[in-house]
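WARN retry 2 of 3 for item q-0093 after timeout on previous attempt; input resubmitted unchanged.
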Amino acid sequence: MDAITNRQLDEAWQCVSPHVRRTPILTSRLLDEETGFRVALKAEMFQRTGAYKIRGALNKLRVLSPEQKQRGVICSSAGNHAQGVALAATLSGVRAVVVMAENATPSKIAATQAYGAQVILHGTIWDDANEEALRIVAGQGLAYVHPFDDQDLIAGQATLGREIVEQLRDVEVVLVPIGGGGLISGVAQAVKRISPRARVVGVESSGAPGMRESVRAGRVVTLDAVDCVIDGLRVRRVGELTREMVARWVDDIVTVPDADIFESVVWLMSRQKLVAEGAAAATVAALRSGLVKAAPGARVVCLLSGGNLNLDQLAGLIWN
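OK item q-0093 returned
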Protein backbone atom coordinates (compact mmCIF):
# COMPACT_ATOMS: atom_id res chain seq x y z
CA MET A 1 0.00 0.00 0.00
CA ASP A 2 1.70 3.18 -1.20
CA ALA A 3 -1.23 5.60 -0.91
CA ILE A 4 -3.69 6.88 1.65
CA THR A 5 -7.25 7.21 0.39
CA ASN A 6 -9.09 10.51 0.31
CA ARG A 7 -11.51 9.10 2.86
CA GLN A 8 -8.66 8.24 5.23
CA LEU A 9 -7.27 11.75 4.84
CA ASP A 10 -10.66 13.31 5.55
CA GLU A 11 -11.29 11.11 8.57
CA ALA A 12 -7.86 11.94 9.95
CA TRP A 13 -8.58 15.65 9.53
CA GLN A 14 -11.88 15.32 11.37
CA CYS A 15 -10.15 13.43 14.18
CA VAL A 16 -7.07 15.58 14.58
CA SER A 17 -8.11 19.16 13.85
CA PRO A 18 -10.30 19.68 16.98
CA HIS A 19 -7.38 18.79 19.26
CA VAL A 20 -4.32 20.42 17.67
CA ARG A 21 -3.26 24.00 17.17
CA ARG A 22 -3.34 25.47 13.69
CA THR A 23 0.27 26.54 13.82
CA PRO A 24 1.34 29.77 12.13
CA ILE A 25 3.00 30.36 8.79
CA LEU A 26 5.76 32.93 9.29
CA THR A 27 7.62 34.90 6.64
CA SER A 28 11.29 35.83 6.59
CA ARG A 29 12.65 38.83 4.71
CA LEU A 30 16.19 37.64 5.46
CA LEU A 31 15.60 34.25 3.87
CA ASP A 32 13.87 35.88 0.89
CA GLU A 33 16.91 38.07 0.29
CA GLU A 34 19.42 35.25 0.85
CA THR A 35 17.71 32.71 -1.41
CA GLY A 36 15.73 34.69 -3.97
CA PHE A 37 12.56 32.78 -3.06
CA ARG A 38 9.45 33.82 -1.16
CA VAL A 39 10.06 31.77 1.96
CA ALA A 40 7.48 30.72 4.54
CA LEU A 41 8.15 28.85 7.79
CA LYS A 42 5.49 26.44 9.05
CA ALA A 43 6.15 26.77 12.78
CA GLU A 44 5.05 23.43 14.22
CA MET A 45 7.20 24.03 17.31
CA PHE A 46 4.11 25.89 18.58
CA GLN A 47 2.11 22.66 18.41
CA ARG A 48 0.96 20.90 21.58
CA THR A 49 3.93 18.94 23.01
CA GLY A 50 6.19 21.17 20.90
CA ALA A 51 6.13 19.01 17.77
CA TYR A 52 3.89 17.50 15.10
CA LYS A 53 3.81 13.97 16.56
CA ILE A 54 0.46 14.32 18.34
CA ARG A 55 -1.28 14.41 14.95
CA GLY A 56 -0.36 10.86 13.96
CA ALA A 57 -0.84 9.50 17.47
CA LEU A 58 -4.37 10.87 17.71
CA ASN A 59 -5.39 9.28 14.44
CA LYS A 60 -3.77 5.95 15.31
CA LEU A 61 -5.66 5.77 18.59
CA ARG A 62 -8.90 6.61 16.78
CA VAL A 63 -8.85 3.38 14.79
CA LEU A 64 -8.12 1.04 17.70
CA SER A 65 -10.83 -1.41 18.69
CA PRO A 66 -12.69 -0.93 22.00
CA GLU A 67 -10.78 -3.90 23.40
CA GLN A 68 -7.43 -2.39 22.40
CA LYS A 69 -8.36 0.96 23.93
CA GLN A 70 -9.34 -0.77 27.15
CA ARG A 71 -5.97 -2.52 27.38
CA GLY A 72 -3.96 0.58 26.40
CA VAL A 73 -1.09 1.50 24.10
CA ILE A 74 2.68 1.39 24.25
CA CYS A 75 5.55 2.96 22.33
CA SER A 76 9.29 3.29 22.66
CA SER A 77 10.82 6.73 22.28
CA ALA A 78 13.06 9.21 24.03
CA GLY A 79 11.60 12.28 22.38
CA ASN A 80 8.67 13.75 20.49
CA HIS A 81 6.88 10.46 19.74
CA ALA A 82 6.75 9.67 23.46
CA GLN A 83 5.11 12.96 24.32
CA GLY A 84 2.75 12.85 21.35
CA VAL A 85 1.50 9.38 22.24
CA ALA A 86 1.21 10.31 25.91
CA LEU A 87 -0.98 13.36 25.26
CA ALA A 88 -3.03 11.66 22.54
CA ALA A 89 -3.76 8.79 24.92
CA THR A 90 -4.84 11.17 27.67
CA LEU A 91 -7.14 13.03 25.26
CA SER A 92 -8.57 9.68 24.10
CA GLY A 93 -9.03 8.26 27.59
CA VAL A 94 -6.54 5.47 26.94
CA ARG A 95 -3.74 4.18 29.16
CA ALA A 96 -0.27 4.78 27.72
CA VAL A 97 3.08 3.18 28.52
CA VAL A 98 6.29 4.61 27.11
CA VAL A 99 9.58 2.73 27.27
CA MET A 100 12.70 4.90 27.32
CA ALA A 101 16.39 4.12 27.63
CA GLU A 102 17.76 4.52 31.14
CA ASN A 103 19.94 7.43 30.04
CA ALA A 104 17.05 9.42 28.56
CA THR A 105 17.04 13.14 29.31
CA PRO A 106 15.31 13.69 32.69
CA SER A 107 13.30 16.61 31.33
CA LYS A 108 11.88 14.40 28.55
CA ILE A 109 10.97 11.71 31.05
CA ALA A 110 9.23 14.30 33.23
CA ALA A 111 7.38 15.80 30.25
CA THR A 112 6.12 12.41 29.11
CA GLN A 113 4.88 11.60 32.60
CA ALA A 114 3.23 15.02 32.85
CA TYR A 115 1.22 14.25 29.72
CA GLY A 116 -0.16 11.19 31.49
CA ALA A 117 1.97 8.21 30.43
CA GLN A 118 3.63 5.56 32.57
CA VAL A 119 7.36 5.60 31.81
CA ILE A 120 9.47 2.46 31.97
CA LEU A 121 13.26 2.82 31.71
CA HIS A 122 15.14 -0.02 30.03
CA GLY A 123 18.52 -0.41 28.35
CA THR A 124 20.92 2.23 27.13
CA ILE A 125 19.77 2.80 23.52
CA TRP A 126 16.45 2.98 21.67
CA ASP A 127 16.83 -0.56 20.33
CA ASP A 128 16.93 -1.93 23.89
CA ALA A 129 13.89 0.11 24.85
CA ASN A 130 12.01 -1.03 21.75
CA GLU A 131 12.73 -4.69 22.47
CA GLU A 132 11.31 -4.22 25.96
CA ALA A 133 8.23 -2.49 24.53
CA LEU A 134 7.60 -5.42 22.19
CA ARG A 135 8.06 -7.86 25.07
CA ILE A 136 5.39 -5.97 27.03
CA VAL A 137 3.11 -6.05 23.99
CA ALA A 138 3.40 -9.83 23.93
CA GLY A 139 2.81 -10.13 27.67
CA GLN A 140 0.08 -7.55 28.27
CA GLY A 141 -1.59 -7.19 24.89
CA LEU A 142 -1.00 -3.44 24.64
CA ALA A 143 -1.34 -1.90 21.17
CA TYR A 144 2.06 -0.89 19.78
CA VAL A 145 2.22 2.60 18.24
CA HIS A 146 5.04 2.64 15.70
CA PRO A 147 6.89 5.97 15.42
CA PHE A 148 6.61 6.18 11.62
CA ASP A 149 5.79 3.03 9.63
CA ASP A 150 2.02 2.90 10.12
CA GLN A 151 -0.74 3.83 7.67
CA ASP A 152 -3.09 5.45 10.20
CA LEU A 153 -0.29 7.34 11.90
CA ILE A 154 0.87 8.65 8.51
CA ALA A 155 -2.67 9.79 7.71
CA GLY A 156 -2.61 11.81 10.92
CA GLN A 157 0.67 13.46 9.97
CA ALA A 158 -0.92 14.32 6.62
CA THR A 159 -3.10 16.90 8.37
CA LEU A 160 -0.01 19.08 8.54
CA GLY A 161 0.28 19.03 4.75
CA ARG A 162 -3.36 20.00 4.40
CA GLU A 163 -2.86 22.93 6.76
CA ILE A 164 0.10 24.19 4.74
CA VAL A 165 -1.84 24.21 1.46
CA GLU A 166 -4.91 25.79 3.06
CA GLN A 167 -2.75 28.56 4.54
CA LEU A 168 -0.68 29.09 1.37
CA ARG A 169 -2.63 28.34 -1.78
CA ASP A 170 0.30 29.44 -3.95
CA VAL A 171 2.82 27.02 -2.43
CA GLU A 172 5.26 25.65 -5.01
CA VAL A 173 7.86 23.76 -2.94
CA VAL A 174 7.53 22.16 0.51
CA LEU A 175 10.69 21.11 2.36
CA VAL A 176 10.17 18.34 4.92
CA PRO A 177 12.70 16.64 7.24
CA ILE A 178 13.07 12.85 6.98
CA GLY A 179 13.85 10.48 9.85
CA GLY A 180 11.91 7.26 9.43
CA GLY A 181 9.69 8.86 6.80
CA GLY A 182 6.28 9.06 8.48
CA LEU A 183 6.00 12.85 8.37
CA ILE A 184 6.97 13.34 4.73
CA SER A 185 4.84 10.38 3.61
CA GLY A 186 1.73 12.04 5.02
CA VAL A 187 2.57 15.63 4.13
CA ALA A 188 3.49 14.77 0.54
CA GLN A 189 0.21 12.97 -0.12
CA ALA A 190 -1.92 15.74 1.37
CA VAL A 191 -0.04 18.44 -0.55
CA LYS A 192 -0.17 16.56 -3.86
CA ARG A 193 -3.87 15.76 -3.55
CA ILE A 194 -4.78 19.43 -3.05
CA SER A 195 -2.03 21.12 -5.07
CA PRO A 196 -0.70 18.57 -7.62
CA ARG A 197 1.86 20.94 -9.14
CA ALA A 198 3.62 21.60 -5.83
CA ARG A 199 6.95 19.84 -5.33
CA VAL A 200 7.81 18.07 -2.07
CA VAL A 201 11.50 17.77 -1.18
CA GLY A 202 12.81 15.67 1.70
CA VAL A 203 15.83 16.65 3.79
CA GLU A 204 18.09 14.11 5.53
CA SER A 205 21.33 14.38 7.44
CA SER A 206 24.21 13.51 5.13
CA GLY A 207 25.38 11.18 7.91
CA ALA A 208 22.10 9.23 7.86
CA PRO A 209 20.73 9.16 4.29
CA GLY A 210 18.63 6.04 4.82
CA MET A 211 15.62 7.14 2.78
CA ARG A 212 17.65 8.45 -0.14
CA GLU A 213 19.62 5.21 -0.37
CA SER A 214 16.49 3.08 0.01
CA VAL A 215 14.64 4.92 -2.74
CA ARG A 216 17.65 4.61 -5.02
CA ALA A 217 17.92 0.88 -4.29
CA GLY A 218 14.21 0.21 -4.72
CA ARG A 219 14.11 -1.50 -1.32
CA VAL A 220 14.72 -0.61 2.30
CA VAL A 221 18.46 -0.39 2.98
CA THR A 222 19.84 -0.70 6.52
CA LEU A 223 22.76 1.68 6.87
CA ASP A 224 25.94 0.08 8.19
CA ALA A 225 26.65 3.13 10.33
CA VAL A 226 25.04 6.46 11.11
CA ASP A 227 27.16 9.57 11.58
CA CYS A 228 24.43 11.86 12.89
CA VAL A 229 23.69 13.18 16.38
CA ILE A 230 20.29 14.72 15.63
CA ASP A 231 17.51 12.67 17.24
CA GLY A 232 14.84 13.19 14.61
CA LEU A 233 17.16 12.35 11.71
CA ARG A 234 19.28 9.55 13.23
CA VAL A 235 17.68 6.45 11.70
CA ARG A 236 19.55 3.44 10.33
CA ARG A 237 16.51 1.83 8.71
CA VAL A 238 13.48 3.67 7.36
CA GLY A 239 10.05 2.06 7.08
CA GLU A 240 8.90 -0.39 4.42
CA LEU A 241 5.66 1.53 3.97
CA THR A 242 7.28 4.94 4.13
CA ARG A 243 9.87 4.00 1.50
CA GLU A 244 7.08 3.04 -0.91
CA MET A 245 5.21 6.28 -0.24
CA VAL A 246 8.27 8.49 -0.55
CA ALA A 247 9.26 6.80 -3.81
CA ARG A 248 5.83 7.59 -5.25
CA TRP A 249 4.98 10.98 -3.79
CA VAL A 250 8.24 12.85 -3.04
CA ASP A 251 10.00 14.70 -5.85
CA ASP A 252 13.55 14.85 -4.47
CA ILE A 253 15.67 14.12 -1.39
CA VAL A 254 18.66 16.26 -0.43
CA THR A 255 21.16 15.78 2.38
CA VAL A 256 22.82 18.32 4.67
CA PRO A 257 25.76 17.91 7.08
CA ASP A 258 24.96 18.11 10.80
CA ALA A 259 27.25 21.13 11.11
CA ASP A 260 25.14 23.11 8.63
CA ILE A 261 21.96 22.04 10.41
CA PHE A 262 23.28 23.20 13.78
CA GLU A 263 24.32 26.49 12.24
CA SER A 264 20.74 26.97 11.09
CA VAL A 265 19.45 26.13 14.59
CA VAL A 266 21.45 29.08 15.90
CA TRP A 267 20.51 31.25 12.88
CA LEU A 268 16.80 30.68 13.49
CA MET A 269 17.20 31.62 17.13
CA SER A 270 19.23 34.75 16.50
CA ARG A 271 17.51 36.03 13.34
CA GLN A 272 13.95 34.68 13.54
CA LYS A 273 13.63 34.27 17.34
CA LEU A 274 12.48 30.68 16.82
CA VAL A 275 13.65 27.65 18.80
CA ALA A 276 13.85 24.81 16.27
CA GLU A 277 15.24 21.38 17.05
CA GLY A 278 17.81 19.95 14.66
CA ALA A 279 15.40 17.98 12.47
CA ALA A 280 13.28 21.10 12.01
CA ALA A 281 16.21 23.35 11.17
CA ALA A 282 17.37 20.87 8.52
CA THR A 283 14.86 22.31 6.06
CA VAL A 284 16.24 25.82 6.52
CA ALA A 285 19.80 24.49 6.25
CA ALA A 286 18.96 22.86 2.92
CA LEU A 287 17.46 26.11 1.65
CA ARG A 288 20.39 28.23 2.79
CA SER A 289 22.88 25.74 1.29
CA GLY A 290 21.43 26.25 -2.19
CA LEU A 291 20.04 22.72 -2.47
CA VAL A 292 16.52 23.76 -3.46
CA LYS A 293 15.93 24.11 -7.18
CA ALA A 294 13.06 26.43 -8.05
CA ALA A 295 12.38 29.53 -10.12
CA PRO A 296 13.31 32.92 -8.65
CA GLY A 297 10.48 34.19 -6.51
CA ALA A 298 8.99 30.72 -6.00
CA ARG A 299 6.87 30.23 -2.87
CA VAL A 300 8.89 27.80 -0.72
CA VAL A 301 7.75 26.43 2.64
CA CYS A 302 10.20 25.10 5.23
CA LEU A 303 8.40 22.75 7.60
CA LEU A 304 9.80 23.36 11.09
CA SER A 305 8.70 20.07 12.62
CA GLY A 306 9.34 20.84 16.30
CA GLY A 307 11.12 22.86 18.93
CA ASN A 308 12.09 20.36 21.61
CA LEU A 309 15.78 21.22 21.49
CA ASN A 310 18.14 19.55 23.92
CA LEU A 311 19.45 22.50 25.95
CA ASP A 312 22.72 20.76 26.81
CA GLN A 313 23.31 20.24 23.10
CA LEU A 314 22.45 23.88 22.46
CA ALA A 315 25.03 25.03 25.00
CA GLY A 316 27.65 22.98 23.17
CA LEU A 317 26.70 24.66 19.89
CA ILE A 318 27.07 28.12 21.33
CA TRP A 319 30.21 27.71 23.38
CA ASN A 320 32.26 25.35 21.22
